[in-house]
Task: inverse folding
């Protein structure tokens, strides 16, 4: 405990800011603080010690997409710190009645300490919406309408999925022993075949946007046409160079897997399809959307061999790369006829994917803590004295 | 703090009762107690001090209409006092299975300390329903089925909207400096044009039913045919007379605005339309309802000049009347083509409408506290000793 | 308090296990511990004393059927012990995306202390599903994915409804003075007419599966063809014999009522119909389902005289048997034209049915406590020292 606190003291917690929207907006020290605090909260939880730092207050969640694990991770994190979850269910609200984002954001925040938002369905929208909410609560706080500036945590947007990528990083840190041990490790972030359509880009973008900062050799693999948002790909390249690692793009899953220490095979929709889809949705062009889905699914079908099989895994470092997935995976012969990963591979790594997921509530709790608690270090010192079960 | 407690000691908290349904059922001392306690809880919240008075217990909400700010205000208030919100979602329940109100009210109350109900859609129903719930939990308590008599808070019915009108009163008290300062102030509670239909009458009724008790000059303005429930209008007249203020009714927005210190332009459906609508709804007469909506909208359209514009505001006291609204407002060129208020007026007063809304969670918390805590004064004294952040 | 604790010390709490799925999987000592703890928690609640044993943690509810009282009982119990309810709403989750039960169960459990499941719609499914969840969280705990093994509470399955039957037992214990006093008492668990269709079998099965263990004379009555799951009926017979009571089956309500100390008239669908219904549902055979419903309703209509009337009650012990019902009842002339019970009988016993229901939150709290708290006795001793209101 004291070791963790000393580590956290050495990092710049005071300037952490009230938002966690994109990992690349955060300094390395801030990311490290998030990781160390998540581990500390996790260890305290394991020992049955209290992580309560708020005596009351709301954690508001806004989910614009279905969710199981992020919803429960958010609820768990809020509860662990002492906040009550209040879900902003847009169907039950008057949001449609011409309220502006600015107004709603303030109206739900009078006693709110944290807002978590998942808005990943439309390119160009999720992150923009989160920024609007951030601006709204910031000015509400400055104008004295809100007593506290609620922290804002991105639970997945169109650009990044920081609670996922940071959980993945926590998993890798513990699997390989330290952040330093990640230097030089090769990860294959690869597209994989799925019979479904329209999966967001934020997981692969989050991975290449985060892991390139740790000196890793990051390979992004996808069929031609399945590219990500160009700005994020550019950023990944620049970060890799700055960190002394590498970033490259290939159009072949097997090639990406060669010698990899970690593989992350996961489906997504092509950037251009997501753009077209967003525009058709805005026009409510139903037949256009249907045609797009058909075209996309039949294009996907050309790449059914982008599956993470035992054979492909043999290409990795000693045939033993760590398999990662944000779950739920499309598992061949389990959840679909043909999918992202073969049943035997998934089963063999099931334990690791569950462990990977287990970091998320603690990562979210750490983000809530650092964006919302007024003096994180003194709150931590107070916690350290608490042995309550 | 001590000043507030002394003030509250001087008011008659012991007879406050377990229900807050209509402001006109409450004595002036009880209303003052609610206001002062709300301010005290607000100030403590601003300073980061705990308002926890329950160590556990449920606050059950029953929303029969969509809601954003009341829902979050209720959740915030419950949480601040230490209660967990449990929403009685009638779709997920067996209410339709022939349960009586009496039965359901008891079944949800075994560990419930507060029930909040919003039921504002049908004339003649909301308040009646709340009274049934009140009777049910009262007899459940008396018969030993319930260990506590849950407090009942009206979150908006067909007749009154006390959490709104009391928040408005708190806003006015703080804007003008004291309740005494309201004496002689002129408020124009005016109908305003909206492109929508069927808005409840409870806000204007709540305003004239409350503010006429404070010696204010209250003018109710609406086009001919847009009258409110006659009993409430009568009551407003009598209260104004008793309090040494005035109450008058005009059919002209501009006339109402002349010399006003406060304007409250807000749309509602005519009483007679709401009555007809309720009767058609009971008969499930779909074509009748559609015809009524059309007739009502086209009648509304005759009164599009009932908009709160900069020009009309110039008619008010020094051209600077305070603009109030319960939100969300129909803002011309923002949420609709033509609405209740012009964009520039709304923008200029936005801060005040947000502040107005910010009182609501604390007003609700004060109502919960006074209707549900067994010995409010000793609970307050216990709180006063708590400096916990 | 000390008396209760001494009693609980004498029972074998350490081997209680983490699941409460079927009462007949629990030893008599475990059932007694549940009852005594429920009473202790209830008495503490009545006195306004804290029952908080967790400082944080989630209680996850999974409702696959509509529910009012069980939902609120679960929420109340969780809150009383210090847990926050998080509802696993399958529509808002990604459960449909090919997740396995094993995966979902772990994903929602990282900070979860209790899982409550209601899954009573399909024969052969509810209990099986609960066992899968149990296995999943057990292995997640053993493999270090979960820090705690969440307790699992059956909130009604296709076979048993233990939170109901245990509440009924608590009611009987208090009505007759002790568990010992139940020996030789006659209960008529009888089918009753209802205009609805497809009611689960778990209430009558739960009653005969539990009360036959207390030396009672249990008579199960239903029209021919309305039988229960044969295994449960067999079990009831064996248990009655072992406990020195009796169990018999008759096809006549009046006969069952003769001399009864307690009557429990309640509708259910025939076992064979539920089996056919489950199979038609799996085939999505809509016309088959409609035909089955029609056939079943018209068969029901042959037995409209299976109503608990004043006349039938006169047949019971001194004409004063205790009337039990799990609520909501189908009450003739109240919730339907003709139903399970006459209005005057129901009204006369209303108080008792409400009391019967009032045990449920405490029974659930006791089950949560015993399945989830690490050292129940020391937690109880800690509670005993707490006089906090």
Result:
């Amino acid at each position: 405990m004291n070791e963790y606190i000393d580590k956290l003291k050495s990092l710049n917690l005071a300037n952490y800011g009230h938002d966690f929207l994109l990992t690349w907006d955060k300094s390395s020290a801030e990311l490290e603080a998030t990781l160390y605090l998540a581990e500390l909260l996790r260890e305290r939880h394991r020992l049955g010690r209290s992580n309560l730092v708020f005596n009351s207050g709301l954690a508001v969640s806004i989910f614009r997409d279905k969710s199981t694990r992020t919803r429960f991770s958010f609820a768990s994190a809020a509860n662990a710190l002492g906040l009550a979850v209040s879900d902003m269910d847009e169907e039950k609200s008057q949001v449609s009645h011409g309220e502006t984002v600015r107004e709603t954001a303030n109206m739900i925040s009078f006693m709110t300490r944290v807002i978590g938002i998942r808005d990943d369905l439309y390119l160009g929208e999720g992150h923009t919406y989160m920024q609007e909410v951030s601006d709204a609560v910031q000015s509400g706080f400055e104008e004295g309408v809100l007593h506290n500036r609620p922290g804002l945590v991105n639970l997945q947007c169109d650009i990044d999925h920081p609670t996922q990528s940071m959980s993945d990083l926590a998993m890798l840190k513990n699997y390989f022993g330290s952040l330093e041990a990640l230097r030089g490790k090769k990860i294959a972030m690869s597209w994989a075949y799925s019979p479904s359509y329209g999966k967001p880009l934020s997981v692969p973008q989050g991975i290449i946007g985060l892991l390139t900062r740790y000196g890793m050799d990051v390979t992004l693999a996808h069929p031609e046409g399945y590219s990500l948002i160009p700005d994020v790909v550019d950023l990944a390249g620049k970060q890799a160079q700055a960190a002394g690692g590498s970033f490259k793009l290939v159009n072949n899953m097997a090639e990406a897997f060669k010698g990899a220490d970690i593989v992350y095979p996961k489906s997504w929709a092509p950037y251009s399809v997501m753009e077209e889809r967003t525009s058709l949705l805005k026009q409510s062009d139903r037949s256009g959307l249907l045609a797009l889905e058909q075209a996309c699914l039949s294009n996907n079908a050309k790449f059914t061999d982008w599956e993470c099989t035992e054979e492909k895994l043999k290409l990795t470092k000693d045939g033993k790369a760590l398999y990662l997935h944000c779950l739920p995976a499309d598992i061949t012969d389990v959840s679909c006829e043909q999918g992202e990963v073969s049943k035997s591979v998934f089963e063999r790594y099931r334990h690791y994917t569950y462990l990977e997921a287990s970091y998320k509530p603690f990562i979210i709790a750490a983000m809530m803590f650092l964006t919302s608690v007024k003096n994180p270090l003194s709150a931590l010192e107070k916690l350290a004295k608490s042995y309550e079960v």
In short: Strands of chain A lie at 19-20, 58-63, 84-87, 112-119, 151-157, 186-190, 217-221, 246-250, 262-265, 322-323. The domain at 164-341 of chain A is CATH 3.40.50.1370 (Rossmann fold). Residues 28-46 of chain A form the longest helix (19 residues). The first strand of chain A starts at residue 19 and ends at 20.
